[in-house]
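Take the subject:
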Amino acid sequence: MSNKDLDFIRRELFSSLKDIKPGTKANWGKMGPQHMVEHLADFFDISSGKLKFDLITPAEQLPAYRNFLFSDKEFRENTKAPLTILGDEPLSLRKQNIEEAIIDLEESVSDFFKYHENEAAVPTVHPVFGALNPDEWIRLHFKHVSHHLRQFGLKSYT
């Protein structure tokens, strides 16, 4: 894990989200801004063990996924999670507005750090990348969040 990735998650993520407006159009994909924020919160909830999914990647393919994780490659535009996880359409919105969704995301990010401070030896499973330790999750969160900030034309560094 790099300090850049950690700093990005702790600070830059939320300073970037302050610029998003409910009507902001995505550069690609079907999600609206609030869908994206709620999606990020779910992703952090997976990393802290609050949401659980089975591993769907065959064991022989995991090394290639892990190589991507530690590479400098970004997620491509329109990268989709496997349909068995999210489906083809954005999930229904759960929060009243984007401000509430951002507050929920802040809680999910905080819960991720608290969980891994207390349970550092217990990796949590990402359905595609497999069991990840805190440093691996931070790397994946950096790539994933950067991808979605680019999706909405928000500040990010990669």
Summary: The CA atoms of residues 56 and 84 lie 9 Å apart.
